[in-house]
Amino acid sequence: MLRIKSLTAGMILLSLLAAAGMAASQDDDPRLEESREIVRDFAGRLQAALQSAMASGGPVKAIGVCKDIAPAIASELSRERGAAISRTSLRLRNPANLAREWQVEVLEDFDAHTATDPGAAPEFFEIGPDGQFRYMQAIPTGGLCLACHGSAIPDEVQKLLNENYPHDRALGYEAGDIRGAFSVVWPGPCEGCTSEK
Known about the structure:
Layout: E1 3-4, H1 9-28, H2 30-81, E2 84-88, H3 101-116, E3 123-127, E4 133-140, H4 146-149, H5 155-164, E5 178-186
Parallel strand pairs: 1-3
Antiparallel strand pairs: 2-5, 3-4, 4-5
């Protein structure tokens, strides 16, 4: 896996000033390995549910896994771990998964990196300006994904996708394309603080 830093013009100076101390503290932050563990758990549970649905009902049944089970897994893990856990993409199927501005930059970096290193599943982590620890790991398009996200979608699957996602943009992927990313955001040190007067 690769650590990717997204440097916008406004972040370049801050990044240069903090490079020595901040990079080391991020690499050593225990939330990095915990974030990786959460993503492994999320991805493993989601893949098992998708494989089971595909085996019992094909892609039509698998749509329900991504629509209902994936958000339930994310919600459960968020409650258990105390971090905001989600999936997002530049080409959304579910508008509830809309990427934040910083996530868009990371996803664009993932796409650029994968164009030069096909098959890679890059990751990103940083401590944000608000003190949040932010982690993302790319989701490469696998063979299982192509039944609902590829170019040759069966008519019955396309019909169900149109009913559930009228503004679907998550189509036309090829194996190895970055389809989106898992995201884990740990709260900053002052989130939930109350001011005393």
